[in-house]
Specification:
- This protein has a domain of 120 residues: 2-Layer Sandwich (hypothetical protein PF0899 fold).
- Helix 1 packs antiparallel against helix 2.
- It is an alpha+beta fold.
- The protein is globular and about 70 Å long.
- InterPro entries: Phage_capsid, Phage_capsid-like_C.
- This is Phage capsid-like C-terminal domain-containing protein.
Length: 469
């Protein structure tokens, strides 16, 4: 089996993107933070940056499912053996389980991509194949002053229709691009869903919030407010008594205003003149990963400033201490008592806690198995997700007398993620700067996006700060 990877000289490699929060449309005078570029950058396996394309024989979907099944059986066997012997997993067993889990995730992604490819195959009999839109081609046209045409012109036109008055003067690219259905006699059912290449659609797939089931709102215009709703009054009355007023009261529970998330990166002109699908995917993923990582890092953090929204852990967790099964259940209990256990329930843990939970038994006697169900990534009967973007250095023990507080905690949160809103205004605004880096044969892409987030019902969530070995 042979893997082929496109290569570029150091001058052709784009910089890694760093993203920062900046003032919104009311003040666009602040400059973005300068990004750094490593000319010796290599492939990173922890984050998907480059895509290795396998041009050799590929496994069928059936073969991939069989491989996934065998890995699952092997993992269950390792866990069963450790539980039967009432011991913790050895380092080799943990490493094998991690490898099996990683491979199963890769298989899931490959199956999903293969299904998407199969579903997009059209019966092209009697019709001309349509060209797909390209972000690289759009940027190249903009750089060279060539008017946009074809799918790129349609893309810019659709972006202008959903503009929210927040543009910074660049070319507008929507975060999602699905062209309308058109009819054709060349297809048996007479309808084709022509799906142009999604420009920054990978963004949502890279957000842990999306996997948890958070509410994603895009294409917004102006501030948006979510009303709070008190409980409805219900009572027993005599047969002829007047009914009590059961109308619930409303209040403004959450108001979101657009916050500017911006960055810039330098890309060689040589890169932009390529007509290469791998480079197309690389540029799109570079932008998507950068924005997604910054959104997660801010939303799951503990900081707040005038420019960036406050993180979930800005208010210190009241549930703290060592990570244990008792604290896992306590998080669920707190949400349950507030009537929030409904909807898209899931735990999101810092990766450090998630890793420790794979080997920690629920009880000291090892009865009941491990805290996390490795087979389905379940925790306490609910979906369990993890990311390194969750807040750290949280207080796990308060100061007592002359003894200082202990701040060795990692963040964890449980709740109904349907009550967590991620809002996006307008489009991705890209300004092409041909002059700043012209001496080096590069162009600068200045990126501006507008986001905010928040809980529509705070009682639906419970945070914790836990120490792990």
């Amino acid at each position: 089996m042979t893997f082929h990877l496109f290569t570029m000289p150091p001058t052709a490699r784009p910089a890694s993107i760093s993203v920062v929060w900046k003032p919104s449309r009311r003040d666009l005078t602040k400059k973005p933070v300068r990004l750094t570029r490593s000319p010796t950058a290599t492939l990173k396996t922890s984050k998907t940056i480059f895509t290795l394309t396998n041009y050799g024989k590929r496994k069928t979907i059936i073969e991939l499912r069989e491989e996934k099944k065998s890995l699952s059986v092997e993992s269950r066997g390792i866990l069963a053996k450790a539980q039967e012997e009432k011991r913790k997993l050895t380092a080799e067993e943990s490493e094998k389980l991690d490898a099996n889990e990683m491979r199963q995730r890769e298989i899931n992604i490959e199956i999903e991509e293969r299904n998407d490819l199969n579903n997009s195959q059209l019966n092209r009999e009697g019709q001309k194949e349509s060209r797909r839109s390209s972000l690289v081609r759009l940027l190249r046209n903009q750089m060279m002053g060539i008017p946009q045409s074809g799918p790129e012109a349609d893309l810019v036109s659709r972006a202008s229709e959903r503009a929210a008055g927040l543009e910074a003067g660049g070319v507008q690219v929507p975060f999602e691009t699905r062209s309308p259905m058109t009819t054709s006699s060349g297809v048996s059912n007479g309808v084709i869903d022509q799906d142009n290449m999604d420009i920054v659609l990978p963004l949502e797939k890279k957000l842990v919030f999306a996997e948890a089931g958070a509410t994603m709102l895009t294409g917004l215009k102006g501030d948006i407010a979510f009303p709070g709703l008190s409980d409805v009054t219900v009572a027993w009355d005599a047969e002829t008594d007047n009914a009590a007023d059961g109308t619930p009261s409303h209040s403004s529970a959450l108001k979101l205003t657009p916050k500017r998330l911006c960055a810039y990166c330098d890309i060689s002109k040589q890169l932009l003149v390529q007509e290469n699908q791998d480079i197309e995917g690389y540029v799109r993923n570079l932008i998507a990963v950068a924005v997604a990582q910054k959104l997660e890092n801010t939303a799951l953090g503990k900081a707040a400033s005038g420019d960036a929204p406050a993180g979930i852990f800005y208010t210190a967790p009241t549930l703290k201490g060592d990570f244990s099964w008792a604290n896992v259940v306590a998080m669920e209990t707190a949400v349950n008592e507030a009537g929030g256990v409904q909807g898209n329930m899931a735990y999101i843990l810092h990766s450090k806690i998630y890793g420790a939970a794979k080997t920690l038994p629920k009880h000291t006697s090892s009865a009941g198995g491990l805290i996390i169900d490795r087979e389905g990534n379940m925790l306490n009967g609910y979906k369990c997700l993890n990311t390194g973007n969750v807040a750290t250095q949280l207080e796990t023990a308060p100061a007592v007398g002359s003894t200082p507080a202990v701040n060795d905690g990692y963040g964890a949160i449980f709740g109904n993620w349907a009550d967590f809103v991620i809002a996006n205004w307008g489009n991705l605004d890209i300004t092409i700067d041909n002059l700043t880096q012209a001496v080096g044969g590069k162009v600068r892409l200045v990126l501006n996006t507008w986001w905010n987030y928040g809980m529509t019902r705070t009682a639906s969530f419970k945070t914790g700060a836990f120490a792990v070995d």
